[in-house]
Amino acid sequence: MLWDGFILVLQVLQRTTGWSVRPVAGLLHPRSFLNGLAFRTFHSTQYIRHGSNPMYTPEPDICHEILGHIPMLADPTFADLAYIIGTASLGVSEKEIWHLTKLYWYTVEFGTVQEEDGVKAFGAGLLSSFGELKHMRTGTDGLMPEFMELDPFAKLPKMSYKDGFQKKYFLCESFQDAVAKLQAYSKQILRPEVEAQILEAKRSQLGKML
Question: What's the CATH number for 4-209?
Fold first, then answer.
């Protein structure tokens, strides 16, 4: 059951970028979750992290969703990034689903961007965790994380979500840079019938605007 404040937040998101949020009891299979992004639907958990460890949660909670995901989905370019991953996931193989899941993980969840004054965070896993942000900037116990340029075509490392903070972050030049790279990868795996449906939906939307 959604409380009034959360409903107001979702209404703002709907008006801003057309995205909707659907509550779920827990984690979905990656295919189901990514497929939802193709319809601009984000599946959100409802529980909250334990008070004994507010800096970190191994699984997404409502703090993670509201502080990390929902504000970023209100940015049109970032929302396009999530949408591209979603559309690419429609009808592809399990191997491709897991690669897309990693792309989602290293961009939407833990993405970073290189700006003139340093590396900035944009992934929800960073934005919703003070501990993860501090680790990204200054390291933990004398160990600094590694930063690598994002290459969607390359083999990506195993996702780490139960062993504490991330050991690697992937850098983009900008949201636009990330979108362009993901679009290039998506074109390689996007099924023709899915691409045709996307084009038809865009034509229909344009027709309504004219």
Answer: 1.10.800.10
> Binning pLDDT at 50, 70 and 90, where does residue 20 land?
very high
Q: Three-state DSSP class for 92?
A: coil
C-alpha span between 108 and 82 (Å, rounded): 7
Residue from 197, 199, 168, 186 nearest 81 by CA: 186
SS3 106: helix
Hey, CA dihedral for 195, 201, 204, 208, is it positive or negative?
Answer: negative
Residues pairing with 112 in the sheet: 121, 171
Using 50, 70 and 90 to split pLDDT, how confident is the model at 206? Answer: very low
What stretches of 89-155 show up as alpha helix (H) in DSSP? Answer: 94-104, 124-127, 130-138
Task: Reply yes or no on whether 89 is catalytic.
Answer: no
109 is catalytic: yes
Among 109, 129, 135, 186, the active-site one is 109
From 43, 89, 99, 128, active-site residue = 128
Close Cβ partners of 30 (under 8 Å, ≥ 6 residues apart): 97, 98, 100, 101
Would the pLDDT of 36 be above 50? yes
**Rounded average pLDDT over 186-192:** 83
